[in-house]
């Protein structure tokens, strides 16, 4: 069984040619054109998996091959994750080699009613009903992008990728329509609620061991200029590096310092603690302990957006900076792929919604955060936009500082997999719920 080079299959026209020329029962495509080398019994194991499971497509784990400047070869395992029903990210990693059932390939391609320049492979895999992950490392793939995870995660927001993003959104929207999961109903009005709030807004800062960066964050929050009362709620998750001492030293009465009574809280649990506190304001506004607002007018702009647009959530834009707040590539992150027009559907494809995030406390108290430290904000966002409008502020109102202490600066393959699998699970839950509507 020959491995076909499919690096140009992002184009629908090329994919049609491959489908027309394919014979036999099964085909293996090298879908990204990466240099690959077969491992032990690769074809036999893939063939066994696709015949035994009846799947339309099978993919497997791999070995990554890195070659340094001196020509030394290093081999490391690269496990992948299962493809869940809600794994709708267009950058889902299936690896280079896909084994496809030829009849399924031909049927999927024949049904394609749009011509894409970039989204053909994505469109194809969304049309395959059964995709099976074989957790065996069966081939070697040469690493062509050795950047750390913290550098790669913003590739999709590069303005040069805008045309690609538009096509991916269209393919995902079509899929949701076919599956009966496309949201088109008008947004609900944000409930007024019966609560009385002591302040109009609360800046929420969950923190653990960030004594180096937290003073800047707190100063940025307390330095906001508004015509309404606000406070800053810092949930200090049992820090041990001096963070607690710093917070106790701040004498501003607007600072609310909370230490959880338990030690099992993730970031989401810390948010729930802050939002359920009677001192929380009408709007709960995010600020990470690493970061700062871009100026003293950020909080006012966010609250004004809530008031004028009647949204349950407001998402801003931010500037990537170094520790000293000097801009660094890719610069402004505005998540233009997430829009009012189709954002609540496209949210199931993208991997994040942007920052800073702010919420109607009334709605947030009903939905709540999952008690995790990754994807908690995404989980709330996809649930909120099922019913309520999420507004955008397109100018950068937030500085996202990148430094060696960032929790996502350089994650292992296993950690990236765990993060991606969790977000895919959130998408699966939401996809099922939307089908049920």
Describe the structure in your own words.
- With 437 residues, the chain is α/β, with parallel strands linked by helices.
- The protein is built from 14 helices and 16 strands.
- The strands form 2 sheets. Strands 8, 9, 10, 11, 12, 13, 14, 15 and 16 form a 9-stranded mixed beta sheet that branches. Strands 1, 2, 3, 4, 5, 6 and 7 form a 7-stranded mixed beta sheet that branches.
- Strand 4 (57-67) and strand 5 (73-78) form a beta hairpin.
- The longest helix has 24 residues, at 413-436.
- It is globular, with a radius of gyration of 24 Å.
Structure at a glance:
This protein has 437 residues and is α/β, with parallel strands linked by helices. It contains 14 helices and 16 strands. Helix 4 (120-127) runs parallel beside helix 6 (162-178) and helix 13 (376-387) runs parallel beside helix 14.
